[in-house]
Amino acid sequence: MKLTWLGQGGFLFVSEGFRLAVDPYLSDFVERKQGLTRLTPPPMDAEELSPVVVVCTHDHPDHLDPVLIAHLVERTDCLLAGPGAVQERLRKMGAAPGRILPLSAGQQSAAGPFQLRALHASHGATEAVSLLLRAAGQSVYLTGDTLYTRELTASACEFAAGVDLLLVCINGKWGNMDHLQAALLAALLAPRTVAPMHYGLFAENTVDPAAFLARCDEAGMHAVELHVGAETDLADLRAN
Ligand SMILES: [Zn+2]
Prior knowledge:
Blueprint: E1 2-7, E2 10-15, E3 18-22, H1 29-34, H2 46-49, E4 53-55, H3 66-75, E5 79-82, H4 84-92, E6 100-102, E7 108-111, E8 114-120, E9 129-135, E10 138-142, H5 150-159, E11 165-169, H6 179-189, E12 193-197, H7 210-218, E13 231-233
Parallel strand pairs: 3-4, 4-5, 5-6, 10-11, 11-12
Antiparallel strand pairs: 1-2, 1-13, 2-3, 7-8, 8-9, 9-10
The protein binds zinc ion (ZN).
C-alpha cells in the first residue's frame, strides 16, 4: 500500500492501482469562507487525485471539501463514503444514492482491495469517525479529527492495536487532541510506525510536529514526519 499526505487530515492511499482518498482538501474554500491563511498549496488537483472512493470522516470543509466534492459528484462516478451527516451532505450536493457508502462508527465496508472499518471519534457536536483500513496485508488507523476520550481509546484499542501505521492529529485545538494526548494514544496502540497529521495547512491552526516526534522518540516509538505530496510505500516506512 502506498500513501500520499495531501495536507491537514487528507491522504491518498493506493493499493493494486485502486485509489482511495480520505478527507482530501484541495481547494481554497476555507480561506475564502473562513478567512484562514493557507500555508502550502494543494499538492494535486482533482484530476491527479482521480479517486475511485472518497471517505470523509466528518462534514467540516477541511475534510469534506465543498469545491472538490462538488466537482467529483458532477464530473466523475467515484463512490463517496462517510457517517450519517456526511451522507446527508452528499445527498444535498446531488450525489445519487447508489454512489454513497454508509460508514458510520461501527460499520464496515469493502472498496476494491481495501477493507474499511469506521471507528469512534469525539469531535464535539459533529458526527465524526476515525478509520481503520487494510489492504495488501497492511493496516492503517487514521484518527480523523478527535479529542482524546475514553470512547476513542476503547474503540481504537479494540480494533486498531498494533497497526502498521497510525496517522494521528496533533494540533490540540478546535476539537482535536494535542501532541501529548496523541503520543499517549500511540503508546496505547503500539503501531509499527506513527506519523503526525493535521498541522501545517493553516497559520491559525498549526503546531510544530517536533514536540510530538520527540515525545514518541523518548518513549521508544518509531515516529516519522510525512511530507505533503510525497508518495511513500508503507513497506519502506520502517527503514526510513
Ligand atoms: Zn479538521
